[in-house]
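Support reply, case 0932

Customer input (verbatim):
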Amino acid sequence: MKKIVFLALILACYPTLSFSQSFFENDAKNQNNTKNQDDAKSRLAAANRYADTMDFNKMMANMTAQMATKMPENKRASFVREMSSLDWSWMRKLMVTSMVQVFSTKELNTLADFYGSPTGREITRKLPAYMASFLSVAERQITQEMAASKNR
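Our regenerated output:
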């Protein structure tokens, strides 16, 4: 008897359970569509979300330090001081505007998801060292190649 009552309850609730499942599936689809919607407003929101994963002050400090290594030693400190005193908020706005023009909402959300993750943050932390290593060798190689091409 208990089995029959249990089966009757399941059968009576099936349409509700079925509706609930389809409702949540449709809700999830709608949320994905909103996240992947590709219009100016959604691109701007996604670009800002991606930009929020970046530490602009730290990024500019790293860039300034890298640029300073290319300057005469007696000018480095004043260059770093001057660059550090600048307001870089315009750069964030410029980057966001450019991202909205170039990338889709889906691409911007993917960037934000990745660079906001622990792995993405770790890669971002290591990029300046990678770039410094790569560029110092590449610069020398390019200089050698250019000199060699003049001698040909």
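We compared this against your earlier run and they match. Two observations from our side: The CA atoms of residues 6 and 60 lie 66 Å apart. Helices lie at 2-36, 40-51, 56-68, 73-84, 89-102, 105-115, 118-150. Please reopen the case if you see a mismatch on your end.
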